[in-house]
């Protein structure tokens, strides 16, 4: 049971990282397509903070 729960914890961690990466990628893509005329697309975090 200890090994089983450890495996599930590992799987849950991998899924959590994967979901976060997916959400971040989708958010960056959405922000890029939303502001294509905006030249500094690399400063997404700063733009997002200023809104």
What does the model show?
The chain has 51 residues and is mainly alpha-helical. It has helices at residues 2-34, 44-50. The model has no long low-confidence stretch (mean pLDDT 79).
Strand content bin: under 5%
Main beta sheet strand tally, sense and closure:
none
Total number of strands: 0
Order of helical and strand elements: HH
The number of helices is 2
* Shape, principal axes of CA atoms: rod-shaped
Mean pLDDT: 79
Helicity level:
over 70%
Query: Spans of 5+ residues with little confidence (pLDDT < 50)?
Result: none
Radius of gyration from the CA trace? 17 Å
Give me the secondary-structure category.
mainly alpha
**Straight-line distance between termini:** 49 Å
